[in-house]
Amino acid sequence: MKKYFKIGIFLFILYSVYFGFITYSKLELISGFSAKSIASGHFLANRSQENIENNNNNFGVIRWATNEINESEKFATATVYGLKRRKAIYREGLGATLISDDFDISKSYEVPKRSKSKNKLLFPYGDIEPKDTVFANVNYAKLNQAVAKAFDSKEHNDKRTRSVLVIYKNRIIAEKYADGFTKNSVILGWSMTKSITGTLFGILEKQRKFDIYKPAPIAEWQNDNRKYITTNDLLHMNSGLEWEEKYDKICDATQMLFQTEDMSRSQLLKPAIFKPNTHWNYSSGTTNLLSGILRKQFKTHQEYLDFWYSALIDKIGMHSMIVETDMAGNYVGSSYAWATTRDWSKLGLLYLHKGNWNGEQLFYASWAKYVSTPTNGSGGDYGAHFWLNAGGYYPDAPRDLYSANGFQGQKVFIIPSQDLVIVRMGLSEDFDFNGLLKGIVGSVKK
């Protein structure tokens, strides 16, 4: 017995050392995620530290973090058992930025110029609340039942939905929010931000300022086989560049988001391991690389900052939206856009109307077809910075559905054949999206 006891003790010690080693290396990422989440959630979304900790940060190892908020200087810090302190600062107009120890917080910075003038037009083109529009072909009882089922109840408290919005023929036909959230609550879209970034290239194309089919304008690639990668390849996530995107480990994506000063260079430095247009690989690094390419289209940093808002965000009235920046001042186009549920819906409506916003064509109608056409190797699930249902991922939803998707189940669904835009914001990927879509689509008779 003593022999087996000693072996057991030895194995326990060995496991403890191993567990400690692999965990310690993650501490900086844990505290980084937590500090950034607290700073954004508190200063940008006006939520309490307790609320953020109990909802956004209450999963996996993120729970280990201890957080503090400095109200007067507008920053948040986080540690894990007193180790690996990280700091995220908040700057009006730029949101929260996770910074390194040597980041100079006294250095001046530029902020985007915004145009938030109000008008007397009805939603979605203005700020006036439309009177209830009753469509004879909508079964409202069935619709409201489908929407209600998306939220937590006494019987089911694992859906964690924050909001659902349904727009049919430009009119809101259903809208519901969880306790603590309203139509004015800004919510992080996570990777729905990718669809914002991609759309800007469609706008530049319409302005005749960029050709996505030419090799990507990256000087570092001109002496090797990466020189053949086009912006079109990057938009389709099939550039062939090396990249690992997993959020339960230290990898390219987590190191970029929580340790890198200039996120636009994270994928730029990666080698090509496949030929372009032969291998689909989802990559947040690619989108931030595209943000860097956008930066190079303007003479000044100020012009780059302004363009995102003047050409798209404020142009379609997404006035609540803030796209946060990295330490180098680049928009984190992969992950960090915040907006109200209604404003997120406007991105969907822009695509539903094929780039036309109240009479002004922001991108060619063909761009909507471009982003919703399956890319090679995706099995019909991905287009150009949008997710697709061409392969039947949602079996009870129309195949022409495409969507902007984000971590924890953020979705803007666009269904052209039904004239529908559906937004769901929440905190869980483990959600019956197919059932929600089936119920909503089934309530609208064509």
Mind explaining what this structure looks like?
This protein is of the alpha+beta class. Helices cover 31% and strands 17% of the residues. It has twelve helices and 15 strands. The strands form four sheets. The protein has a six-stranded antiparallel sheet with strand order 6-5-15-14-13-12, with helices on both faces. Strands 1-2-3-4 form a four-stranded antiparallel sheet, with helices on one face. The chain has a three-stranded antiparallel sheet with strand order 7-9-8. It starts with a helix and ends with a helix. The model is unreliable at 10-22 (pLDDT under 50).
| Strand tally | 15
Overall mean confidence score, pLDDT: 94
Helicity, in percent?
Answer: 25-40%
Strand order of the largest sheet: 6-5-15-14-13-12
Can you count the helices? 12
Describe the global form: globular
Largest sheet: 6 strands, antiparallel
SSE string = HHHEEEEHEEEHHHHHEEHEEHEEEEH
Ends distance? 75 Å
Helix and strand composition category: alpha+beta
Q: What oligomeric state is this?
A: single chain
From the alpha carbons, calculate the radius of gyration and give it in angstroms: 23 Å
Strand content: 15-25%
Low-confidence stretches: 10-22
Primary descriptors:
single chain; 446 residues; alpha+beta; six-stranded antiparallel β-sheet; four-stranded antiparallel β-sheet; 12 helices
